[in-house]
Amino acid sequence: MYIIIVGGGDLGLSLAKFLLEEKHELVVVEKDPARFARLSEELGEAVIFGDGAELGTLLDMGANRADVLVAVTGTDQDNLVICQLAKLIYLIPRTIAKINDPKNEELFSSLGVDATVSGTKLIASLIEEKIDAGMTIPILAFKEGGVEIFKSELSQDSSLVNRKISKLKLPDECNIIAVLRGNQVIIPRGDTVFREGDEIFVLIRKEKKEAFKRLFLEAV
After folding, report:
1. From 149's CA, which of 40, 143, 198, 216 has a CA 20 to 30 Å away?
2. pTM for the complete prediction?
3. Which one of 3.40.50.2000, 3.40.50.10860, 3.30.70.1450, 3.20.20.370 gives the CATH number of domain 127-217?
4. Is pLDDT above 80 for 142?
């Protein structure tokens, strides 16, 4: 599968790393020079410098043969324009957009975007569920590839508490992609320290889920 990711922020970078581990062909486009330099160090030739909202950039990325386009820039307007170009001009079968304002979800859907991702909406739905602490809750299961995203609240007994993510030996094909701390959403970096009560979101191959739980979510 050939995947185009527009936007090289923390979400775009985490997604690209995971998809590369899954052996997908992909390219990331980023228009900020400093961020492009950082991405190039981590992803090498899988990064293109340019504006994904421009037709020429999308053509350079091979949009005419892409299976999926994911727009995860910082603005809803850019993400919508990028997905529309992908659909209408390059006939990319599936488009996915990050939306920062959940009120825009209906607009995106009506204009042909296949799927939207809203951190605000996800967090609100989790709060409404009133899940018991410590439970692992499946959030999203991918039909192909045997991969899912789940969330779990860290108890005081979890071996993750008070540890830096850079010091963890995570199972293969596993990424902690977000942390919900109160009303704050944290995209974890190497120096992120987990706290009791944090809600973590984990992208993982399904057969590795039990190993992750035994290592990090059960009592130390």
Report:
1. 40
2. 0.60
3. 3.30.70.1450
4. no
